[in-house]
Amino acid sequence: MKIKINQEENTSPTLDVLLKLDRQQQHLKIRWIILPILIVLLMFSWQQHLFTAWVILPSIWMLLVFNHLLIIRSRRQKLQKIQEIKLDPVFMRSLQQHYPHISLKQRRLIEAGFKDYLALHAIQQQAYAMPSNAVDALWHEMLEYPDQYRKLCIQTIGRELNHHPYGDETQAEQQAKQLFEAWKYSCLLHGYNPRNTTQMPRLFAIDQALNWEHGQHFDLDKMTKDYAKYLQEQSSSSSSCGSSCSSCGGD
Length: 251
Fold this sequence. Notes:
The protein is mainly α. 62% of the residues lie in helices and 3% in strands.
């Protein structure tokens, strides 16, 4: 991949914007905690007896809310770890050796993109497409150092992240599902609504921002429309990869 200096200068403002994007922490709305407590108090004042069938549903609700709080706490800890962790220098040196024309700022963006991809798996453990060939290039460099790569994965998401190149046996529906799930959680990661966002999530914008050779370019309007269509077609299992398709995924 070759990037001329003038191309880098032209895309520098875009790189700055993408680098400044924050990963949003998930929060539980207070009303989901207060509402069942109020119901229990009202029932108690009315019945004058706490152990009654009227409090069973609010109590179950409270247990579910508490369980959800534990899940959110675990996710926030993983996201914080992803934010703070420093990649082993051997990864970026290897990337620089194979792509010597990439600047430091561009390597930082690719690193941020890989951390975003890790964050998807921290939020929800499932298979996701890799929507950036630039980030995938870094991923391939990491796989050349299995011990360091495994350590990074364990420290951030608690397990090793598997890399699965798509082959002829990979069904289009499976690729589409992984792509749109990546879109959904990439949007949520930055606080965007995947149905009608006006901003492209960083992981989906990196290749275009870097002018990456054979990169994946996504149209914002098309992605939101295709995602809405994907949601409608999920029940019929007839989703197709109408937007730019990835070459690999991870779970």
